[in-house]
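Input structure tokens:
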């Protein structure tokens, strides 16, 4: 539990460097939960329903999070 709380704080911090990229296109990301190294997020704004959102999720958000936080196993949209 404490580990998930620490990861959650690290993910929130990492989002600070990811958000400008998303917001430039009218979107954003919300952290829903972190459980056993799996980050659950909600894409909002222009990202919601965008055909490129799966690419943004895996090649943008997930890649950046894994680079900054090695304990992250994957990122899922909920």
């Amino acid at each position: 539990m404490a580990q998930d709380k620490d990861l959650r704080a690290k993910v929130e911090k990492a989002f600070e460097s990811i958000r400008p990229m998303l917001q430039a296109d009218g979107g954003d990301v919300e952290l829903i939960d972190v459980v056993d190294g799996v980050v659950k997020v909600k894409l909002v704004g222009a990202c919601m329903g965008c055909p490129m959102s799966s690419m943004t999720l895996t090649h943008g958000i997930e890649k950046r999070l894994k680079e900054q936080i090695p304990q992250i196993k994957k990122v899922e949209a909920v």
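The beta strands are 27-35, 38-45, 74-77. The radius of gyration is 12 Å.
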